Amino acid sequence: MADKYEGYCVKCRTKREFEGEKKSLPNGRMAAQGACPVCGTKVTRMLGKSA
């Protein structure tokens, strides 16, 4: 189930809205990861610890 998030695409150098999934990182933090709709680069948005 993909939700919509807004994150910074490093390749496009702008904020983009992307569809992503919540994932738990190795350090315990939560992040939303998906692909940039323009260039296809992986975009990561850091979320709060309780998200």
Fold and architecture overview:
It is a single chain. The protein is an all-beta fold and 51 residues long. It has one domain. The chain has no helices and four strands. Strands 1-2-3-4 form a four-stranded antiparallel β-sheet, with no helix packed on it. A hairpin with a 6-residue loop joins strand 3 and strand 4 (42-46). It is globular. The model has no long low-confidence stretch (mean pLDDT 92).
Short description:
With 51 residues, the protein is mainly β. The protein has strands spanning 3-9, 14-24, 30-35, 42-46.
Tags for this entry?
51 residues, mainly beta, four-stranded antiparallel beta sheet, 4 strands
Give the helix/strand layout.
Blueprint: E1 3-9, E2 14-24, E3 30-35, E4 42-46
Antiparallel strand pairs: 1-2, 2-3, 3-4
Secondary-structure-based class equals: mainly beta
* Strand element count: 4
Summed over residues and divided by their number, the pLDDT gives a mean of: 92
Number of domains: 1
Rg over C-alpha atoms, rounded to the nearest angstrom: 11 Å
Reading the helices and strands in chain order gives: EEEE
